[in-house]
Amino acid sequence: MLGRIFTEFFTLVEAEFGDDMLDDIIEDAELPNEGSYTAVGNYDYLELIRLVTALSERSHIGIPDLVKTFGTFIFERLVLIYPKLTENICDSFFSNISLNAKRAYQSNGDLRFPSSR
Questions:
Q1: 31, 26, 62, 25: which is closest to 45 by C-alpha?
Q2: In terms of CB atoms within 10 Å, which end of the chain has fewer, N or C?
Q3: What is the reported pLDDT for 83?
Q4: 19: helix, strand or coil
Q5: Which letter, b or e, does each residue of 17-49 get, where b requires 16 or more Cβ atoms within 10 Å of its Cβ?
């Protein structure tokens, strides 16, 4: 797994839980490199699983909730860090949503979309 994922996870943990929590989960996870990651290195994904598990145990937040939070965080960060890379993904994603909504409406004329009113 690309080291950027680990460094961004650490950024999230520091911002949301503080430096002490980050130090604690690195120690709890018993990582082979003692939590030393570079953004361009490649690492075993199981190390990230250990970190998330340790954070869950210490924070008493469920793993699914932590994964969802990190997924949202990392997506936003990747858009900022790699705008050209994510530009096409976002355009394609939203175009597909729009196209599928139009197809659903055309095949079911009485379909009603949610409104904000």
A1: 31
A2: C
A3: 79
A4: helix
A5: beeebbebbbeebebeeebebeeeeebeeebbe
d(CA 57, CA 36): 21
2 forms beta bridges with 42
- In whole angstroms, give the CA distance from residue 42 to residue 12: 20
Q: Worst-scoring range by mean pLDDT, 2-11, 56-65, 85-94?
A: 85-94
- The answer to whether the CB of 55 falls within 8 A of the CB of 13 is yes
pLDDT tens digits along 67-113: 999 999 998 888 888 777 666 666 666 666 666 666 665 666 555 55
